Amino acid sequence: MTHKDIVIVGGGPAGLAAAIAAREQGVQDILILERDARLGGILNQCIHNGFGLHTFKEELTGPEYAERFEKKVYDAGIPYKLNTIVVNITKDRELTYINEEEGAVTIQAGAIILAMGCRERPRGALGLPGFRPAGVYTAGTAQRLMNIEGYMVGKEVVILGSGDIGLIMARRMTLEGAKVKVVAELMPYSGGLKRNIVQCLDDYGIPLKLSHTVTKIHGKERVTGITISEVGPDRRPIPGTEEYYSCDTLLLSCGLIPETELMKTAGITLNPVTSGPDVEDSLVTSVPGVFACGNVLHVHDLVDFVSEEAARAGKNAAAFLGNPEARSHSTKTMLKGINGVRYTVPEMLDIENMDPEVVVRFRVGDVYRNKSISVYYDDRKIRTIRKRVMAPGEMEQVMLTRDSFQGIGPVKEIRIAVEDPA
Fold first, then answer.
1. At the top level of CATH, which class does the domain 1-119+256-328 belong to?
2. What is the CATH number of domain 122-254?
3. For the whole model, what pTM was predicted?
4. What's the pLDDT tens digit per position in 39-60?
């Protein structure tokens, strides 16, 4: 068994940013483990622009954004292993990985940062009726096949789900000469960013049908058509609303799920709403010394926020190495989303040891117009923020400051709520 101060699982945008932040804190013994053949993660297949506006104050493509962080890792001399799969993590921070050159290797880590990202919800989890013909892809798989492998996946396309990857692929396939017939969305609102609805659907005349779902996939060898139906408030298809679209391809963009299998082996507590781990404001999980960041923690809408969050994980992992007991005996204050706020990240705040400012990110459960976000310390309303529009596809955030807790006594619970403006 070998020893490393910090092991980072995942070499995507979160893992790279965490490694750089830890090195800037003076940690030299860092190792990045990446299962793919190169660093950069999902950004390597995201050849559209729109990345980096917050981080670099300019618009970049996904590979360009990844390259900037990769260069920082190379320049800092941070070691990494590619084509390497982590198969087990224990609550004692023992980590086992396998690759072709070394076989199985176990490392005792001083701290672990989990940055494995997320995966797409597959067809098997959606319960779609019909045979299993060729031509049914998740949107991310189609994106990789087109942008990295160079394969055109279809010519006539129906997309189920309005997540950001599906919206972006509607535009991508249109630009490559395909005809995107329709985007159907089960919910009465889109799951993607407003800018992607405008730039990827509206600008190309692609219809978006809300409160619709696929009720039949036609074809045995290859998809020949799709039937979609309107759904009621109970999300069940309404008889008589069927519409048939001839097509050879169905893309699924029905949500992303954090990659949490390794967390289960380590006994890390998971959040039933985000499907990622519960974390404190330091981004440490329920297992001391194991931190999480990026889309494995909760699914983000902008990679800039992933990098910002991951830098905080890297910084706090470095601090843990210097003083593992610093936060172990302090009282934790719970954060809770209510009245339309689905969850908060972090879920716990260590007021005694918190940074001067802590960003709390969350998503709402419906589309809200002309509402307010209110922050309560127990029953005391501390802050109200007016919001013109809030939607599930757009992440929201509030800033909690250490100074705001001065002089008010112990706080047992912090609540964040959607309310009517005063």
1. alpha beta
2. 3.50.50.60
3. 0.94
4. 999 999 999 998 999 999 999 9
